[in-house]
Amino acid sequence: MRPEEGRVREEAALRSDAQRNRRRILEVALVELTRAADAPLSAIAKKACVGQGTFYRNFPNREALVLEVYRYEMQQVADTAAQLLRTRAPDRALREWMDRLAQYAMAKAGLAAALRKATSDHGGLAQLGHGPVTGAVTLLLHANEEAGTIRPGLSPDDFVLAIAGLWQLDPHSDWQPRATRLLDLVMDGLRVGASGADGLTADGSTTEKSEADGPHRGR
After folding, report:
1. 3-state class of 174 per DSSP?
2. 59, 89, 136, 196: which has the fewest Cβ within 10 Å?
3. CA quadruple 146, 148, 150, 151: dihedral sign
4. Nearest to 92 by CA among 132, 143, 131
5. Which residues share a beta bridge with 200?
């Protein structure tokens, strides 16, 4: 192996290790900050199995860590949109993604104290996740318009306003049934005026997809 090839491989390995460390810190921080807003950074670093130097190279202070946890979680939720569309009919993918978003909304509520302690710039916090979530919603709405399973002409902003009630739910209550009812209502509204409305089954899937799914038909 030539020396330059060895250096390239070593650099790639270092970058891979750095990415794993960063991801591990974020995963541990989500759990610890949800449990206690003032969780010590040293404890987070220890549970993530990284040294203090590695931790502070990635996150120089508490605010940087909390904001990145928020951004990271929003990106994870957004990424599931494309994953669901690969294995579900568009309308089923949209409805399941809405459930994922509801679960995230409750997790975000658990981080509220940590977010407040880290920064008072709530507008900035909202913008951190705006890009990924807007992209996910755009993808889902477009796929459903193409399939004729929702009404045409809806924008991501329309959708976000329609589900805004999620953020009014109390995460400490029995929120799941209420969230399900709310999102079912939103989904029913999205279907009104859909070009393929005549081909919808009782569960909202298209007739063609329902026949392919078999066990889901007529649920």
Report:
1. coil
2. 196
3. positive
4. 143
5. 206
CA angle 87, 174, 168 (to 5 degrees): 85
Residue given tokens 């507008």 in the structure block: 123
State the Cα–Cα distance between residues 215 and 219, nearest whole angstrom: 8
- Residues of the chain above pLDDT 70, percent: 73
Taking the CA atoms of residue 186, residue 74, residue 77 and residue 90 in that order, the dihedral angle to the nearest 10 degrees is: 50
Q: How far apart are CA 82 and CA 188, in angstroms?
A: 22
Model-level pTM?
0.67
- Distance between CA atoms of residues 189 and 31, nearest Å: 36
- Residue 142 is predicted with a pLDDT of 97
Residue 208, both tokens: 């063609």
Q: Which two tokens stand for residue 26?
A: 């974020």
Are 48 and 24 in contact by the 8 Å Cβ rule? The answer is yes
Q: Which tokens hold the place of 143?
A: 């796929």
User: How far, in Å, CA of 45 to CA of 104, rounded?
Assistant: 24
Determine the Cα angle at 81 with ends 76 and 84, to 5°: 115
Provide the H-helix boundaries in 88-121: 90-110, 112-118
Instruction: For 66-110, write each residue's pLDDT tens digit.
Output: 888 888 888 888 999 999 999 999 999 999 999 998 888 777 666
Q: Which residues pair with 206 in a beta bridge?
A: 200
